[in-house]
Amino acid sequence: MLRLDSDRKQTLDQIADRLKLSKNAVLELALDGIAQKLRTQLTQSSLGDNHYLGDETICQRCTENKQG
Q1: How many domains does the chain have?
Q2: What is the pTM of this model?
């Protein structure tokens, strides 16, 4: 069970009201976002310190592999 202090509970209530979602839906969205960020960080760290996915800068090793 997740326990929130009064400030966090109030913030959760405000977000849920503004998005017209249940508190559980807001928490699920937040947890999904955290999980996605962690997956991205794990992927990047396994590919190299300077590796970015998508159209961002890619690591030197990948650049060299594309050119050579």
Answers
A1: 1
A2: 0.56
